[in-house]
Structure formats: C-alpha cells, structure tokens
Design brief:
The chain has about 550 residues and is an alpha+beta fold. The protein is built from 14 helices and 27 strands. The strands form eight sheets. The protein has a seven-stranded mixed sheet. A five-stranded mixed sheet has the order 24-23-25-26-27, sandwiched between helices. Strand 26 and strand 27 (about 520-525) form a beta hairpin. It is globular and about 90 Å long. Bound molecules: glycyl-adenosine-5'-phosphate.
C-alpha cells in the first residue's frame, strides 16, 4: 500500500487534518476529523474496556501467574516539576541532534540515514533527504551523481559500500554530505536536546515557576500509587490504567501521526511482588501482542522485539517492543507500537527517596550537595507496600505496557486500507477503495439507504436509522446512485449497509450488505437493529 493514498483518503474523508492548516500548518501536530475522532475513540474505548472495565478480577487468565485487579486513573498534564527530576526525564530524557550549518536544518542524529560511496578514490557518506522510504535508494543515487558531477549514464562508476545505515555509524563527519547540503562536513557534532515542553505556571513568570507538559502519562500513576491503595481495596498484584495526552518536542516529527509532538498514550502500571515480576513481564508482553491481533492487525506485520541491553531506557531492566511493519518504512523494517517494560522499583523508589538503586546505570548516580545529601529528593513519602496476609513490606516492582493511541490508530488504518474489485450498480466490476476496519473500531457501524426517494422508502429507512442510532453509530444517506453510496461507506470503513427497497414494502424485509465479503442477505425489518448490534459487538 502506498502511504500517499492513505494520507489522501484520511484528508478527503475527514479522518485526519494537518493542525492549523489554514495558517500553513504546524509540524508534528494533527487534528482528527469527524470520522477520525470516532475511530480513535473506539481504539481507546476498546483498550479501556478490554484492559480495565471488562477485566475479570476473579479469574486467572491464561499465562497470568495469578488473578489480578485493574483500576483506572486520570491525572493532570502539568504536575509538580520535581516529578520529572525524580523520574529522570529532566536530566536524561533527550535525543541527540545534529545541525546543518549550510541548510540551517536540524535532524535527529539516529534518524539521518546514508551510505558510503567512492568515486575515483574519493570516499563520501551520502545521506538521503527523501521523506518516503521507497524513494531513499533513488535519492541517494541522484545526490551522489550530483555531488560527483556525473551524468545518469555514468552511475556505474559509483562504488557503493554496504547497506544504508544510520549517521551514528559514520565516525568522520568531515566526509558526510548532510541531507540538504551541497558541501561536505556541514553537520555539527551531535548535541543533547531535552524533549520536554516547558511552560510557566502563574502570573509571575519567573524561572522558579517553570513547569513541564508531561512527556508520558506513567508518572501520574506512580505519584498516585498511595492514593489508589488508600482509597480502594486493591491488593497486589494490580494494575492502574491511564490514557491521555503526552507531549514531546520531537526534533523531527514525521511519518504522518507516527511521530507527533502532541499525542495520546494508553499506559498501564502493573504493581507486583519482585519475585513474580518476570512472570508478569512475560504475561503482559503476550497479552498486549494478542490484543493487536484480536483488533485486526495481521500476525505477519507484527513482531515482539526484545531490547538489547544498551538500548534500554534509564529505568528499565527489560523491555520488549510490539512493532508493526508500517508501510512508510523500508521493506523488512518495523516501527514501535507499544513498549512493554520491566521498570523494577525504579519509579516508586525514586519518588520516595530521590536516590536510586546503587546498581542502576552510572549516569543515574545522584549528584550530592555540599551537605553530602542528594541534590534532589523524592517526596519523602513511604511508597512501600505491606502485604496484609504475610505482613511482608516491600517496594513493588512494575511492569508497564505503554501504548500510543495515535500510533495504534495509524496501524489500524494502514492494515485496513485496501483496493479490490466490487460490482457497480450495473453489475460491472470496478476498483473500490475500502477500509476493512474491525467492526469494534469502525466509526460508523451501519449505513441505511432507501433505494429510491419515493414510495415511502425514505420514511421506513429514517425510522430504522433512528432505532439503530440509539444502539450504535449509524448513518442515513438517500443521495445518489446506490453503488456510489456503498462506495462512500466502504471508504469510511462502515461494515454494514442496509437497503430499503421495493420488497421491503411487500414483506417487511431489508437487505444487509457485508463490506468485506460483499455478501447480501435479507432480514426482517424488525430484527435488523438486533442483527447489526450483535454483529458489531454492541
Ligand atoms: N512510559 C513509557 C513511555 O512513555 P515510550 O516508548 O517513550 O514509553 C510509549 O512511549 C508509546 O507512546 C510508544 O510505543 C508510542 O506508541 C507512543 N509514542 C511515543 N512517542 C510518540 C510520538 N512522538 N508520537 C506518537 N506516539 C508516540
């Protein structure tokens, strides 16, 4: 599937718009249109229902070490700045960037890709300025030809080395041709860049009033751990789920909504006994992977990838990413949908004590003040847990399945997009564009059409529409040829279309058409609402 086609469908049919478009747009920010907002709400609702409200607290689910409870939370976006000190985000949440002195553009160090090429003893690392993965190879060739002043017919004089790799592997920057540069060696050495958005709380506006927009929802859960324990009867093991906006000042937002500066996360912090944390880690990796396949992502485009030790975040002692083969990536490459991390007791301990496990990474050793105490501190509150049955007191370990609602929505859209053939109103096969979304995710569950605008058909169709709308999102359309109306619903991902026709007037039956199989069958008008709600899981 070509990404441009999906992007254009999303705009044309009101799934996604560039934010602030009439002012030229704002890079890294996206608005969801009338269909998009329903799709994303359905993704979030499916997650919340499957992970929280419909979770069976009493049963031991397949693969789970024991039965567990799940509750929800909704914390604020702006929180006490000390939280980000203790979480490590203030000091460690950064990417490396490189600037180009010639083009004045800024790039994420690890995202610039290029390849070594030699021409007549001159060896240069040419980087690509292509946005789309499919154009990368062609773009590299064109840039190399231009750089060495060669014509296309002399392309075989270029001696390419190895594969296309990240700039992080090119040690000598003097021989690098930046993505938008004409000269060599215009990229600066990589520099750290904190990804948190800074803001000011209150009217005074001094540096003491600085605060941050949260870069993850997770910390809101950790700092409420005690509140949840004290206000409910949950016992370990239990999970707290939260979904909401997060903000990261990404250096190079790209690939549609995949890397945005404002996005939504769906996170669970699962608190368990340190001795059983490995088992829970395994459980959550598999549980979350299964959720994506249940929601329609194909197994062959999904993978679970365990992080190498050097790739682990500052808090993590084990992380696996659930990844999807997004169509904008080069063939064989996958992009992160969700991370499942074993965070140990890092977060609770640092919010409690403000000092970290002596075994943690060296860069996390806390700087000491003149009094010999850590320069920054935790809350000083006791965030340990006492098991009432055994009387054991411990700091729980945490397993964190952390998903992106926008990335999930994008993956579901990519998976659903399809072009196939369907008969038009004259029975002639025509190419159609269809979004084969899982019925739970589809923005509209059923569309209702009177075949013609006369003989009482619109009245019957409108009555059915009103009855159905009370149970599931429905759409009424009486305009244009019936084939055209089907096609519009196929593009919107509507799983069922119901037609009121001449036969309805005689025997009170209607036709239901299935979006994917194109099968059509008749049901009694009176049974139609029940049939649709049963099929879409209402
Ligand atoms: N609390 C852990 C955490 O935030 P993360 O891997 O940085 O971990 C979790 O983020 C998920 O949030 C990612 O797997 C991704 O789905 C989503 N996400 C992260 N950065 C994003 C961005 N810039 N744009 C869209 N989604 C993003």
């Amino acid at each position: 599937m070509e990404m441009e086609k999906l992007v254009s469908l999303c705009k044309r049919r009101g799934f996604l718009f560039q934010s602030s478009e009439i002012y030229g747009g704002l890079n890294g920010f996206w608005d969801y249109g009338p269909l998009g907002v329903e799709l994303k709400r359905n993704v979030k609702e499916a997650w919340w229902r499957d992970m929280v409200t419909a979770h069976d607290d009493l049963a031991t689910l397949p693969g789970a070490p024991e039965a567990y409870e799940m509750v929800g939370l909704d914390s604020t976006i702006i929180m006490h700045p000390q939280i980000w000190k203790c979480s490590g985000h203030y000091d460690l949440f950064h990417d490396y960037m490189v600037d180009c002195r010639e083009s004045k553009k800024r790039y994420r160090y690890d995202q610039v890709r290029g390849r070594w090429v030699t021409h007549r003893d001159r060896r240069v690392f040419i980087t690509s300025s292509a946005e789309a993965a499919e154009q990368e190879a062609e773009n590299l060739t064109q840039r190399a030809l231009k750089f060495f002043n060669l014509r296309g017919k002399n392309a075989e004089e270029l001696k390419w080395e190895g594969e296309v790799v990240s700039l992080t592997q090119a040690k000598d920057f003097t021989q690098v041709l930046g993505p938008d540069a004409k000269e060599l060696g215009t990229l600066t050495e990589p520099r750290e860049y904190n990804l948190m958005f800074k803001t000011i709380v209150g009217a005074l506006g001094s540096d003491d009033d600085a605060a941050f927009l949260r870069p993850e929802t997770a910390q809101g859960i950790f700092v409420n751990f005690k509140n949840v324990l004290d206000s409910t009867r949950v016992r370990i093991p239990f999970g707290v789920a939260q979904m909401g906006k997060s903000f990261r000042n990404e250096i190079t937002p790209r690939n549609f909504t995949f890397r945005s500066r404002e996005f939504e996360q769906m996170e669970i912090e699962f608190f368990c006994h340190p001795n059983s944390s490995r088992g829970w880690y395994e459980y959550w990796r598999n549980r979350r992977m299964r959720w994506y396949t249940d929601m329609g992502l194909a197994n062959e485009r999904l993978r679970l990838r365990e992080h190498d030790p050097e790739e682990l975040s500052h808090y993590s002692c084990g992380t696996a990413d659930i990844e999807y083969a997004f169509p904008f990536l080069p063939p064989g490459e996958f992009g992160e949908l969700e991370g499942v991390a074993h965070r140990g007791d890092f977060d609770l301990r640092s919010h409690m004590e403000g000092k970290l496990d002596p075994h943690s990474k060296p860069e996390l050793k806390v700087e000491l003040g003149p009094d010999g105490k850590p320069k920054w501190r935790g809350s000083g509150k006791d965030l340990s847990y006492r098991d009432e049955l055994t009387n054991e007191r411990y700091v729980p370990h945490v397993i964190e399945p952390s998903a992106g609602a926008d990335r999930g929505t994008l993956a579901f859209l990519c998976e659903a997009y399809c072009e196939d053939e369907a008969p038009d109103e004259n029975g002639k096969m025509q190419t159609r564009t269809v979004l084969k979304l899982h019925p739970r995710l589809a923005p509209i569950k059923a569309a209702i059409f009177p075949l013609v605008k006369k003989d009482g058909m619109p009245e019957i169709a409108q009555d059915l529409y009103r009855s159905l709308k009370k149970k599931a999102p429905a759409f009424y359309d009486e305009k244009g040829a019936i084939g055209r109306r089907y096609r519009r619903q196929d593009e919107a991902g509507t799983p069922y279309c119901i037609t009121i026709d001449g036969q309805t007037l005689q025997d009170k039956t209607v036709t239901i058409r299935d979006r994917d199989s194109l099968e059509q069958w008749r049901v009694k008008l009176d049974d139609c609402v029940e049939e649709i709600t049963r099929r879409v899981g209402g």
